[in-house]
Design brief:
mainly alpha, 5 helices, 166 residues
């Protein structure tokens, strides 16, 4: 077949060289096949190790989420405010921003973990309490945002002359 195809282009083929190459081919092919099988084994081991690491990360994320939730429930800003001074209220708003930042980082890590699980055809994990925690933080933020809006408007009214206001 090789001679018939190569013969049409005017090229000459050394039949002895082709015969030598074909004689070496089974040994080379066998070596190549062994190398591919060894590489496939290495890949399978690495894949299994990564799956184990992903499962470990999922356990760690669940524990971290649980700890964050417990801290939030215990230390939620403004649970029992006795002093409504501007400094105290500003501190509450700063604390809320820090809580939101920390929660956003945790939420981002859980979504990245879900992507990793999807890439390895693992079931996408459900992080218990993530949604309820998000709702709790959002409702607390909205409550304090309402207070902030009230305080801002009250402050604006307080800056007006009472005679002009009247």
């Amino acid at each position: 077949l090789l001679l018939s195809v190569a013969g049409t282009g005017g090229a000459s083929i050394d039949v002895a060289e082709v015969t030598n190459r074909l004689a070496q081919l089974p040994g080379d092919w066998e070596n190549f096949d062994i190398a591919v099988e060894a590489f496939a084994d290495i890949l399978e081991e690495a894949k299994q190790k990564m799956k184990e690491e992903i499962e470990q990360q999922q356990m760690e994320l669940n524990m971290e989420l649980d700890k964050f939730s417990q801290r939030w429930q215990a230390l939620r800003p403004g649970r029992e405010v006795t002093d409504w001074s501007v400094a105290i209220v500003d501190k509450i708003f700063q604390d809320l921003e820090e809580w939101r930042k920390d929660f956003s980082e945790l939420e981002q890590r859980t979504s990245q973990h879900a992507e990793h699980c999807d890439q390895f055809q693992l079931p996408i994990p459900k992080f218990d309490g993530l949604e309820s925690l998000s709702e709790s933080i959002s409702s607390t933020e909205s409550s304090w945002a309402m207070y902030k809006e009230f305080a801002t408007e009250l402050d604006e009214m307080g800056k007006q002359d009472w005679i002009t206001f009247r």
